[in-house]
Amino acid sequence: MARTGPTEDPKVSALRAARCLNPHPEAVTDERFTSSDFFDPRDAVQVKYEMVRAVSTGDMSITAAAAAFGYSRPAYYAAAAALAQAGLEGLAAAKPGPRRGHKLTDEILAWADRRVSADPATRPGGLGEAIWHTFGVRVHPRTIERGLARHRHQSKSR
């Protein structure tokens, strides 16, 4: 999980927990960050915001800003788009991992729904092995139950 230690700076711990810790603070060479205690190169959101602001105010070109703030030009464009679309929240790193269920396709859910409807004694969670043998996908029993409930709800909404 978190790589915090007993001697870690509390701000570093907070930035890491908020997914805002800049992995390469040493790459930030902009004068604002090297000459002021207010600007913290460890804060990725602050660094990205100042990078985008430096370009938008005309202080720097995109290439110069990307280099001074320790990012690439594509990273600048991504930060500018994220800031425009979602504000400061858009500059924080997204949570890792899948954003939604990805194993149970509509085809698998329709198949499972037919199996459960054909035999009311069949429990949705008990279809894991059958799904594995039929579709080659391993799925937790609770995932099947939630997926079928969502599938049935969406079918009624149509």
How would you describe what is shown here?
- The protein has 158 residues and is mainly alpha-helical.
- The protein folds into two domains: 82 residues, no CATH class; 46 residues, no CATH class.
- It is built from eight helices and no strands.
- The longest helix is centred in the last third of the chain and has 17 residues.
- The chain is elongated.
Pick out its properties.
158 residues, mainly alpha, 2 domains, 8 helices, elongated
Report helical residue fraction: 40-55%
What proportion of the residues form beta strands (DSSP E)? Answer: under 5%
Radius of gyration computed on alpha carbons: 24 Å
Strands, count: 0
- What's the main sheet like? none
Shape, principal axes of CA atoms: elongated
List the helices and strands in order: HHHHHHHH
- SS-based class: mainly alpha
Mean pLDDT level:
92
Q: Number of folding domains?
A: 2
Number of helices: 8
Task: Walk me through the topology.
Blueprint: H1 10-17, H2 31-34, H3 44-56, H4 62-68, H5 73-86, H6 106-118, H7 128-135, H8 141-157
Short description:
With 158 residues, the protein is mainly alpha-helical. The chain contains 8 helices and no strands.
